[in-house]
## 1
Amino acid sequence: MKIVVHNNKHEDDSIVKGILRDDPKTIKAIYNDQFGKINAMVNNFHFINIDADDVFQEGLTRAIINIRKGVFKGDSTFSTYLYSICRNICLKEYNRNKHLQASELNDIKEDLQDDYFDEIQLMLKLKDSIDDKCKSIIDLRFGIGNSTHMDNKIVRFEEIAKKLNISSDNARQRFGRCFSKLKELLLSNAQFKQLID
Amino acid sequence: MNEKDTRLIEDYIDGTLSQEQKIIFEQRLKSDKDFAYNYDSRLRASKLWLDADEYKTTHDSIRRLIKNENRSFFIRNRYYIFSVAASIIVLMGIYLLVYDRSDNGIKQDQFANTNDKAITFASDKPNILTSIDSVNSSTVLISPKNGDAFIKDSAVTFVWSSSYNHDDTLFICSSLGMTSQLKLRIDLSDTAYTIKYPQLNVGKYLWYISDSTNYEEFNVTDR
């Protein structure tokens, strides 16, 4: 079955539904229909060294997360919405070098705060900087890897202890130590402080 | 934050505190700013951790799908791509075939003026370019001329003057049908060339240096 992405309400509904059920065909259809436009837009930013594929992937990730969180209400078409997010990513990159006026950035009403995605990027960097043992116990505590990303649940230390074949207290201590380290890294990070101020 | 508070916060999140402990915990959140900050930062960091995981999972999945989509574009269109490639190969083959045939068709001499700054040959294959002769109308043929006679088997000296000093070709032809009897490689700067034993039969001849329109006649006689 081939899904064609058109700019109308009915098609937008099917896109949102497809995204909510993690339908790969919907993602492929969005890519086939929208990438050309995004690519042309990115190529118009002559002064920034940014790849259209990266912008598209990041923009679509943001759009999908916004849809999952119910931020996107359908006030604009999905096509316009995705385009605006991608354009903002480019403008922000441009701004890093050129000190663009804030007013020049697109005002997307149905977007999570742009800074939030910067916080996420920062967290991903921090995640990479901590050791694997710490990463795995934090993941276990938050139920990552147990179920889908949509319904992570806090896993009690007794359960973690069983999985790791250690005592419950040991699991609690290990998590406490690792999570404190993570918080310390996060809260002492200048970029993070700038984002939450 | 001390270990006791860390444990308390985790127990509150796990829901393992008694009702009484829970009330005390919530009251402390309102009265103790540091404790409330620690609790908030614990929640914020965990939310960010989870959201970062969701972001990464979603992003990786999109990247994988797009990569497969790009790959499947070639698979889906492989017959089209192969047919275009095959067409290009066939067209190139036809072009080379026609090109070679047109090369073979060029057998006649080609001419160009020496005053020209550039000469373009219709066929430019050096391996089939056997000789290059200049057509030089400014060379003056001095002797023999006007039917000068030579006795058969005696030496004949051809004399000319030319402002050039490169190699050229002296032709001796039977005047009947302009059939070439001898071709002699000469240096124009020499101005003369003697054939000691010409072995020409009795008859009328003409000679020229490259330019067949600029010739002189001579005769070979018995005595």
## 2
Amino acid sequence: MSGELVIETSGLRKEFRTRRGGHRVAVQGLDLAVPAGGVHGFLGPNGSGKTTTIRMLLGLARPTKGSMALFGQSVPKALPSVMDRVGAVVESPKFAPNFSGRQNLQLLARSRSIPQTRIDQAVETVGLTGRDHDRYKSYSLGMKQRLAIAATLLKDPELLILDEPTNGLDPAGIREIRDTIRGLGEAGVTVLLSSHILAEVQQVCTSATIIGNGRMLASGKVDDLLGSGHVHRVTVDDQAAATAALEAKGFTVSRDGTSLRVETEADPAVITRALGEAGLWLSEITAVRPDLETVFLELTAGETLGPTPGPTLGPTPGPTLGEEKAR
Amino acid sequence: MRLLLVELTRLRWRRAVLALVALSILIPAFVAWGEIHNTRPYTQQEIDRATSRVKAEVGQDKFFERNVRQCAKHPERFGIDVPEGSDPAAACEPQMLRDYAGLYREDLSLQRVKEQSGVGVIVVLAGLAMLIGATFVGADWASGSMSNQLLFEPRRLRVYAAKAAAVLLVGLVVSGVVLSVWWAVLGQVAAHRDLTTSAATWADIRGSVVRGGLLAALAGVGGYAMTMLFRSTVATLGVLFGTVVATTLLIASLPLENAQRWLPSNNIGAWVLDGIDYYTNNSQEHLSKWDGGLYLLVLLVGALVLSSWSFRRRDVP
């Protein structure tokens, strides 16, 4: 396994026994590679195996097959030596309800001989100062999330694994957490951000992996996943003449309401030149860039586990996914 | 050591544990108070009032006079210790009057207490220690904080051992201190009442404190081990109750000559009481403390092995 990858899985598989004696496959042959640095999104519909994968990486669940590595060291065997470099929030925050937020952090810190001063720093970082002595059960969901993130910061981690960290936060809280995550990524911490909020991943992440039904569907830089925007919307008065002129130059053209959709991987200037040579003057030309939601829905269409897959919403064909795995 | 200190802190911070520790002090204290109160010597005023009340009633009672005469002839049959050179009749009449007046209160006998309420206190302490062990770790499972702890210390067997050691330590300290203080108080009261307690009885009591303390502490570890296996305090209590009832019924209904040997209650009794005698259809059998202790130890080791294996292997939610 490569030393440059912070997280690497190969052929990772997890089966659960069902009550009727059968087996349910949660993760099937997942090859995940997260490079060091930056924020890496981990996307997938509900039940696609994101949390199970994270739980296996952290030693909370045993893989049925396959291998995993953190910082190039095989886990779960090497977990004791790498765990000090990893902070994680898995699913919902889990703390003792009758202890205060600070008491919960103190117990975790003491178990790794982490100095108590780090608790103050972590509490301040997540904005819980003043409420850290309150009982955990009196916290709002947002405060619980903040406490969970504070716990991950105790170890000053090089890798932060966050499973739906903005669940339950108000818009201001979401922005704060996103800024925190972005800041950590910029500070050199590798963040694996598992989320089903596509806008969040698009805004925060530099790279992403999309999984469905426990398999990887696509992985790469977010820009690559979105594609380069090789479809343009062209608004011109004489649509018929424009279509003819563009098709004569080899473009694929289709009507889109009052505009034309023109596909080309070349510079959009060639479109304006072709129209100009035909004596047609366009009033508007826009690059149509698919958003991550479009990519996600296209990739996960037909996945039976999640409630979200549906018809393709975007106006453009799917992006070129250079690293898309054959399914 | 670091993990043990963390677990001791976690134990100390749990309110349910504190409540159970408080009960471990209050219940024996109440029992001790009951023993002291129920064996308090009669005051002369009480005796005078009672005897004067019955004197009038027994004045014409031939049976009373006959009983006093019988007692004077054979005071030992009436449980009366007549000092040498004293008149037996002088010792018997007041005793007869007290008996007729219903002044039956016994003296505080540490030997009797050891075999009766002493056993009860040990069983209560063991039950409470078991609850401490169960609720301590049951809360970790119920809140899901177990997974959080494993994110900081992924070596599961270390976590398991640290929690078990914390429960054992708390059980030993609580039961040891409570039992020692309990007997010290009773011993002081007995001495204050000029009641002598033989050295042999004190040796028995010391043995009872050691075995009782061990039983309570290990019961705590047993409760902990079962909760680590079932991952729920309620499930542990349900299984324990069901197992005790089912085992007792099963053993009682089995056509075995010596089935009672395997009853949990008999084995606990044998361990606490330095051996017990029980009766089968045809004979009287003796169960030594070592036999009873071995039986309990096998159960505990079985629970520990099973639950540590389960904790190491199973996924943690």
